[in-house]
Each structure stands twice: as structure tokens, then as C-alpha cells.
Predict the structure.
Amino acid sequence: MGMSAELLPEFDLEMASARRTLERIPEDKLAWKPHEKSMTLGRLAGHIAELPGMGVSVMKEDALDFANRPAGEVARKPTVAESRGQVLELFDKNTAALRAGIAGASDEHWSKNWKLSVGEKKFYDGPRMGAMRRMVMSHMIHHRAQLGVYLRLNGVPVPSVYGPSADEGR
């Protein structure tokens, strides 16, 4: 079994869990945040929706440097959810594109190096599979859990992810 075939079942489960969590965002609380240093609920949901798009970059490019954009390319503004539908549409589009990229990748492609940086500051420099797991999958799992806390603090039932939540699946 190749690396893509091995990763896809995990990818599908994690994306389904992320989508179930995004489906619960309360549209009347998008500006809410638990602390002054925290992202708003709308920004956090937007970030989760964006992350599979970063995975597309991992699959298509050899590096992502946030400091060096091609000439004429305008800096992308971070997504802040304006509605649940907007976030789910972006998440679904990015997830489908990433899934296709994963499914079509050879083991040789997975073994190639990938780098994430801001100018000279490196955040990741290693095998593409490591980038996918750490910079995309684990990153999404982290923020999905964070969104679960936001939901809990706003009285929204938290979906089951790896087993029953306090709200469902008992």
C-alpha cells in the first residue's frame, strides 16, 4: 500500500470531524472570543476552512514563504466567517482539492522536501509527508479542538470526534 492510500482513511475521518464541528458554529457569535488574545470564533472557523488549502500548497509546491510572494500577487486576507454556509463552502472546496492531490501523489512525491517559512525564519523543512501531518492535519486537529471549546463556552453541543462527547454519543 502506498503512502497516499495509507493517509486517505485518516484524512477522510479528520476532515469529516472538522466539518461536523464547523457545522455547529453559531452565526450570532462569530465576533465572540474567550480572551483578548484569542481569535474570534469567526476567524477560528475561517482558519479551519483555509487549512486544507494550505495542504494543496504542500502537494503542489516545494515551499511556502509567506514573506516572498510573486511580483504583482496581492497578500491574501485571512478568512473570517461571515456565515456558516460560507465557511462550509470554503472548507468543502479546499478539502476536495486536497483529497485529489493526496490521492494522486506517488511515494516519491511524498518523500520530497517541503519548506514553510517567513523569509529566513523556517517553521518546517523536511519531508512532504511530515509537512502534511504536522502543518496541515495536526494543525487542523488543534484548531478543531479549540473550536470545540468555543462551542462549549457558548452552550453549543460539541460533536463526537474520537468517541462520545458530553453532548452526544453516550
Summary: The two ends are 35 Å apart (CA to CA). Helices lie at 3-22, 41-60, 84-103, 107-111, 128-153. The first strand starts at residue 63 and ends at 65. The chain has a mean pLDDT of 94.
